[in-house]
């Protein structure tokens, strides 16, 4: 069996896969196209998530149902499925791990909402708004422990190592972020370390895990990790930018949420570095105050425009996506590859 | 090599162990005697805990140092060491796992304090009183993920299975407890299920893990699990009783803390079942109110005396210890066995 670059199998050698590709000969441009093609896989992921959330403790089911209803992009399961296809994986562990990585993500959201005192998540009331902080903390713990419990059932040491390293790094990132709250001296390097830890690491791990269950070569696993990491960095950078630019309808988010939580993300960091000496104390005051008024947000947004801070962040995000796509360009052409390129583009545009 | 009951090796066959036993020929009556004998092991455990808490994120070190300074009984590490000695284990994994189980315990304490809005832990300000709920939640997550990270480094599937099953069950227990807050209809069966999940499971797992790293036979591992589980049930029952009887100096606890948090433990459950129709609504009012005044607590304590509720709980606790000691009685005599009996007695008396 001949292999493409990085030890990944050439798709074209599998007639049934070629047939599947032919079924989807129309170009894959958007993430909606990707959802269309892999609809059956995603149905299996959703079924797995529902099964894994089921518990004899009714409070878990209540919160779980609320989280499922709230939707979410299932961005990590999506990458798990696509990278598994890229590796020509034919087993069932990808579905289990898709649920595992989504659970780890959901656990962090539940705890983040308590930490950030957030009332809204994905345009719906946050779980803590309905069941209180106590339930959010404990269901978060449950969801996280259930994720690791499911992962352990795969009896794969490498899977356990990746997940335990990842979750440790994620919680370190959350704590680093907390310790830098409203700290106007935060450097770009520290900011990048935070988004690496809290977001890119899990997305990189997701892609790597697809390689692990596929018995891919070390080089291939490293390549998948780089693809995931770069997409993850861009994804969080775009999120931090959209916090200042997106409409509520589009992302179900409150504009300026990071600012009101004292989270200094790249646009603000860029602004602090480039603004005039007169503007600096005004920005500092807004950051320290916490209670952000409409005029404060408009003031910051005007300065973003003046100093091109949003563009600076988006250019940085595009750079990561460019790197991810360069890595992907070395792979044989396939439906999965095209889908991953569409997902990479989506990470920064969020266009459906 | 001949084995004692349950596949555990007879201590008497190891001259160096017999020598160690001879060094400690004076009877082991109290937990202080146990600390004396195993001082070197506990030093290694403390060093391991300090090493594992170390992080490049300074907030983790600050909270970690506070937790270490606060002490704690190290009850789970103690059982890990003693059960390892009982199994004649000579490797280094017992020290690592002693730190792991203590970390899992510390993580639950950090989250419990936020859930219970507790200000004091072990007579010291709770971490959340100093660094806030945010840090307590996130350091809890870190400590938990670090525990599993360390456990995974042992590359032992059985260890991972035990720990992931245990932590899942623990968080289910915490949620069951939360959902039964101030619920005067809670049954004794439900109460026992809560203390099984939130406390006995981890202590049972600790003792089982000692068997796992010792390559003990399945029967021996099951025996160790029963010893740990029964000690764990008694330990929590005693805790729930001491909440109404201990002095602040003795346990560093606030009297009636469970009552003010709406936690209906066995003494209260027994009282609700046995009190008169006149007393019932008064007790219900106190439970529902949450803000417990001194006279409320004194009223409840007087009723406990009237209906013998404290004794009922302690008798139940003693029953579990009796079972644990019966299980231990089948083992060959050894220092570790004597120490475990002393620890079992301590679990209900808390006499140093």
Tally of extended strands of chain A?
2
* Portion in helices of chain A: over 70%
Tell me the count of domains of chain A: 1
Radius of gyration of chain A: 21 Å
Q: What profile does the largest beta sheet of chain A have?
A: 2 strands, antiparallel
CATH level-two architecture of chain A:
Orthogonal Bundle
Write the element-wise H/E pattern of chain A from the N-terminal end onward: HHHHHHEEHHHHHHHHHHH
Kindly estimate the percentage of residues of chain A that lie in beta strands according to DSSP. under 5%
CATH domain topology of chain A: Farnesyl Diphosphate Synthase
CATH H-tier superfamily of chain A: Farnesyl Diphosphate Synthase
Mean pLDDT of chain A: 89
Going across the biggest sheet of chain A, name each strand in turn: 1-2
Multimerization state: homodimer
Largest interface pair: A-B, 40 and 40 residues
* Structural class by sheet pairing and helices of chain A: mainly alpha
Point out poorly predicted stretches of chain A: 1-7
What is the 3D shape of chain A? globular
Ends apart, CA distance between termini of chain A: 37 Å
Just give the CATH class of chain A.
Mainly Alpha
Can you lay out the helices and strands and say which pair or pack?
Two copies of one chain form a homodimer.
Chain A: H1 15-23, H2 31-37, H3 39-53, H4 58-69, H5 75-86, H6 93-115, E1 120-121, E2 124-125, H7 127-152, H8 157-179, H9 188-213, H10 218-245, H11 248-251, H12 257-260, H13 266-274, H14 279-289, H15 294-307, H16 309-329, H17 335-349
Antiparallel strand pairs in A: 1-2
């Amino acid at each position: 069996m001949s292999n493409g670059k990085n030890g990944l199998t050439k798709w074209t050698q599998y007639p049934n896969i070629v047939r599947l590709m032919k079924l989807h000969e129309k170009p894959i441009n958007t993430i909606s196209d990707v959802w269309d093609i892999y609809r059956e896989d995603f149905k299996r992921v959703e079924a797995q998530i529902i099964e894994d959330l089921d518990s004899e403790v009714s409070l878990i089911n209540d919160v779980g149902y609320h989280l499922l209803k709230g939707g979410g992009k299932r961005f990590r399961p999506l990458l798990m499925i696509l990278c598994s296809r890229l590796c020509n994986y034919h087993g069932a562990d990808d579905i289990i791990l898709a649920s595992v990585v989504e659970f780890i993500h959901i656990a962090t959201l539940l705890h983040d909402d308590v930490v950030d005192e957030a009332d809204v998540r994905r345009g719906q009331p946050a779980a803590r708004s309905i069941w209180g902080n106590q339930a959010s903390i404990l269901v978060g713990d449950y969801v996280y422990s259930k994720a690791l419990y499911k992962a352990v059932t795969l009896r794969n040491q490498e899977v356990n190592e990746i997940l335990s390293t990842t979750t440790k790094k994620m919680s370190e990132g959350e704590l680093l972020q907390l310790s830098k709250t409203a700290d106007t001296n935060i450097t770009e390097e520290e900011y990048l370390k935070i988004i690496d830890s809290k977001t890119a690491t899990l997305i990189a791990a997701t892609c790597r895990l697809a390689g692990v269950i596929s018995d891919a070569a070390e080089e291939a696993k490293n390549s998948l990790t780089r693809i995931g990491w770069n997409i993850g960095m861009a994804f969080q950078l775009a999120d931090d930018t959209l916090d200042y630019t997106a409409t509520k309808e589009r992302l179900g988010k409150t504009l300026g949420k990071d600012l009101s939580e004292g989270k200094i993300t790249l646009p603000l960091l860029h602004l602090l570095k480039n603004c005039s000496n007169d503007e600096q104390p005004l920005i500092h005051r807004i950051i320290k105050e916490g209670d952000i008024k409409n005029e404060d947000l408009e003031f910051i947004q005007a300065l973003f425009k003046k100093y091109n801070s949003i563009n600076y962040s988006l250019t940085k995000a595009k750079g990561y996506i460019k790197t991810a796509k360069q890595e992907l360009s070395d792979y044989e052409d396939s439906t999965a590859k095209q889908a991953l390129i569409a997902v990479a583009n989506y990470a920064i545009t969020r266009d459906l």
